Amino acid sequence: MAPWFGGVIAQGPMRAAVFSFSPLDLAVVGLFLLAVLTLGLRLGRRAGPAEEFLLAGRRLTLPMFVGSLVSTWYGGILGVGEIAFSDGVVTWVTQGGFWYLSYFVFAFFLAERLSRSKQVTLPDQLGLLHGPRARVVASLLNFLNVVPVAYMLSMGLVAHLILGCPVWLGTVLGATLVLGYSALGGFRAVVYTDLLQFALMCVAVALLMIFAVVKLGGSDYLTLRLPPAHLQPRGHVSGQELFVWALIALSTLVDPNFYQRCYAALTPRVARLGVLCSIGFWMLFDVCTTFTGLYARAALPTADPRLAYPLLANRLLPPGVKGIFFVGLLATVMGTVDSYCFVAATTLSHDFFRRTLRPDATDETVVRTTRWALLFTVVLAVLLSLASGGSIKGVWKTLGSLSTSALLVPMLLGQLGWRPRGAGLAAMLAGAGGTLGWAALRRFGPPWARRLEVMVPGLGLSLSAYAGAGLLSRGGKGTP
Hints:
Blueprint: H1 23-44, H2 50-55, H3 62-72, H4 77-87, H5 91-117, H6 122-130, H7 132-146, H8 149-163, H9 167-216, H10 219-225, H11 239-249, H12 256-264, H13 268-299, H14 308-316, H15 321-357, H16 363-388, H17 393-415, H18 423-444, H19 455-472
Helix pairs in contact: 1-9, 1-15, 3-9, 3-12, 3-13, 4-13, 5-11, 5-12, 5-13, 6-7, 6-17, 7-15, 7-17, 7-18, 8-9, 8-15, 8-16, 9-13, 9-14, 9-15, 9-16, 12-13, 13-14, 15-16, 17-18, 17-19, 18-19
């Protein structure tokens, strides 16, 4: 699925919706929150050296790796529901098929290499390939990419749907919970809570899919009630839009959450098998989410697409089961928020503080700095999400495109062994400049500029700069 579609991303206010919860539903929610807090408190006692706090001691087993990665990568579940509601089965291509190809490339080309490198972060890897200046630029781009503004707002929206509180209060409460267990237990707490969230998200979408088929009907129900384009492989999506989604899927190859889990894996084989196993779960999950979105469109054609899943669940699920679904929805978003916040905090404490400002910092200092960085990241994400007013799609996509355009070329070509002097830094600057420049042109320039996504010129300039540096250095291999 597309990691930068996550909830409240479309323009305009949410349409009013009434959700009813029984005491049993609320009890399920309370048990989930209690379980998450208990895990954080228990694991907080084990936080020790920096490697233990940042990478769980590099001892992630296969189940831990898979559960954490699958949970982390699906925080945009409300956005996927919106796309499936609006576009139909082509969602499985744009939010699934293209991404599976990228996952396979990552599994067979990068996973074991990263695990064997024994680095700590994605910027570390780029610094190893292209030198310290490239690492500093990569650290900045990485931080901008992983501050989870939209996911934080999505978490507030789900809390609002369950508790009836204002979205801002739901955002603050959810952020406080994530901050508590992440700061106490470090990456190990993130992984173990992700395992719980993984189980809940799988149960939630399976339950909604089963109840939709049983209560509404099978394929005949969808055929009779959906627009014909919704059941066609391409729907109404243009070839250029499909191409853009294929490019966006390449962001997987420079996603810091994938890198962190590969660095934390017990062995290189666990890293590779972990990504491959995760693909299977993502495929099953995408089938459920796509067809559940179709059922929502068929049953509730005038509903707000952004609330497709919650509205369908509210209509179909009995007490208790409804609580499990909404807990699964909350867990899905929280599993992404905690991972992105922790990666952002690690970027600040390890890449900026330890690697750039204080190379002699002790493990105790790094752990303490990570906790403060986590607080800063969470507060920043909350403030930005609340200031956005729910209209952040453009900024969000630009930041995601910025990181991919700047980092993809130097990472892949560097891993292949072609590392001309200065090429990595040049490609990062050119990719970032091209992305930001085209974003400005799309906003303030002529209408034709809007026809091209910002990632296309960004990647083109990055590749050109890398190749140019290679020609200037006469195509030499070697270290920066």
